[in-house]
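Good morning,

Attaching, inline, the backbone tokens for the sequence recovery test we're adding to the shared suite. The designed sequence is right after.
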């Protein structure tokens, strides 16, 4: 088997190249031919992936986080080339949804064992996007977009839920609730919200279970809407997102749909997999079985 292993050198606080080298070594021990390529940017990841696909490579492997995977998926979606993942990011939410180990050697073993799984993607068309964009995890709008933008601009802050909570506490005091209109297959909402999250994966931000019922192969998007409430109440709600129990609260509703239209009273910034993807108005839909990934048998 021939694979290309693309690494984001900034991931894992600069340790991703070392982790990728460990994964490469294990793959070669398992009989793979595996070239290691160091990316220079998100666009470069996309370009390296495109070149690999054009060379009829057997697999593209990403050593990085959800943002790096997001770039590769723009090329790999609806192709026969499978994606391998060596988790090296701050969040690793797709890896979590797939049940992948975080050890680079064990993640490489999953790839070498060759079990393939088809998963869904989301597909978003939004203002300021030149073409539709695939995503693996979650599109955020509202407060979580503000948090994602903060994390995007401050790459030195801790990853995972610690970084999310820190950014949330900084931003909440000045946050202004957003007026939105959300239309799904069999529901409609119009009003003031803290956030709207359109999920393909159940978690984001390194383990925040914003849509705990979501599955990456159920052919549906799961839309979490948290309506406007007092900021004191929001402070009490935030910890429940770590366990997914926020969906039991009266301010929260969760809907399943194949297609969604999202509008704002003003243009609202959208983030997908932690990266900016334009603004409202937006059309979002599920792309069933659009990506082939290496995954454990029991994931």
């Amino acid at each position: 088997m021939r694979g290309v292993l693309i690494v984001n050198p900034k991931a894992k606080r600069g340790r991703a190249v070392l982790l990728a080298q460990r994964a490469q070594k294990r793959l070669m021990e398992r009989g793979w031919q595996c070239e290691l390529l160091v990316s220079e940017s998100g666009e470069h990841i996309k370009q390296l992936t495109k070149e690999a696909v054009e060379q009829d490579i057997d697999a593209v492997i990403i050593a990085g986080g959800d943002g790096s995977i997001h770039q590769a998926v723009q090329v790999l979606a609806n192709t026969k080339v499978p994606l391998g993942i060596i988790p090296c990011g701050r969040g690793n939410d797709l890896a979590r949804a797939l049940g992948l180990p975080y050890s680079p050697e064990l993640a490489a073993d999953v790839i070498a064992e060759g079990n393939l799984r088809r998963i869904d993607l989301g597909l978003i068309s939004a203002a300021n996007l030149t073409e539709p964009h695939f995503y693996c995890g979650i599109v955020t709008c509202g407060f979580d977009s503000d948090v994602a933008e903060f994390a995007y601009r401050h790459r030195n802050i801790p990853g995972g839920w610690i970084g999310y909570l820190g950014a949330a506490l900084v931003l909440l005091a000045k946050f202004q609730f957003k007026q939105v209109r959300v239309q799904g297959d069999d529901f409609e909402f119009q009003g003031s919200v803290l956030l709207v999250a359109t999920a393909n994966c159940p978690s984001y931000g390194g383990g925040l279970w914003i849509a705990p019922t979501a599955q990456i192969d159920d052919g549906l998007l799961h839309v979490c809407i948290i309506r406007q409430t007092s900021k004191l109440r929001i402070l009490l709600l935030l910890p429940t997102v770590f366990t997914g129990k926020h969906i039991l609260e009266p301010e929260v509703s969760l809907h399943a749909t194949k297609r969604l239209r999202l509008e704002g009273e003003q243009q609202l910034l959208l983030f997908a997999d932690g990266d900016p993807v334009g603004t409202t108005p937006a059309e979002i839909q599920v792309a069933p079985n659009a990506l082939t990934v290496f995954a454990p048998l029991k994931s």
